[in-house]
């Protein structure tokens, strides 16, 4: 089966930075996504996979704008320590509403520093500003179910899907 809109694609994938330093490698069942512009995966990689079949392998260079965007210093903010649970440490992630945003504008923030009664939050993705190299191998292609197409994402083998739970900071 060829990769086309509304197919579910499973890949093994290795991601490195531009200097070939490893960032992430899939294991087990690999990475699975719903193909066809559903914002499940990077558009440049979807474009490279369109029309391909199981066994196809390619290395795709993603510039920051193709991946996680440029680093935006305006997404860094300082909040009062009292807004957070007692057991926090740098590296933890929280959901929050950006300054001037509404309940519909929830973003993820990573704690980058804790100084006294202040917490520094960064709304940039940890890989923002970096060029990436993604080596992908197609390991499976199947038709998407009607429910997956309706929900615009892949469901697990039992037909269910999970949504991550994160703590919220306002």
TrEMBL record:
Signal sequence span is: none
Query: Which parts of this chain are annotated as the region Disordered?
Result: 144-170
Keywords assigned: Chaperone, Cytoplasm, Isomerase, Rotamase
Which GO molecular function annotations are given, in alphabetical order?
Answer: peptidyl-prolyl cis-trans isomerase activity
Q: Which reaction does it catalyse?
A: [protein]-peptidylproline (omega=180) = [protein]-peptidylproline (omega=0)
Q: Name one GO cellular component term.
A: cytoplasm
Q: What is its EC number?
A: 5.2.1.8
Main localization of the protein described in the UniProt heading: cytoplasm
Query: What broad class of enzyme is this?
Result: isomerase
Subcellular localization, per the record?
Cytoplasm
Output the InterPro entries linked to this UniProt entry: PPIase_dom_sf
Q: Which PANTHER family match?
A: FKBP-TYPE PEPTIDYL-PROLYL CIS-TRANS ISOMERASE SLYD
Q: Which family does it belong to?
A: Belongs to the FKBP-type PPIase family.
What's the protein here called?
A: peptidylprolyl isomerase
Q: What is the originating organism of this protein?
A: Hydromonas duriensis
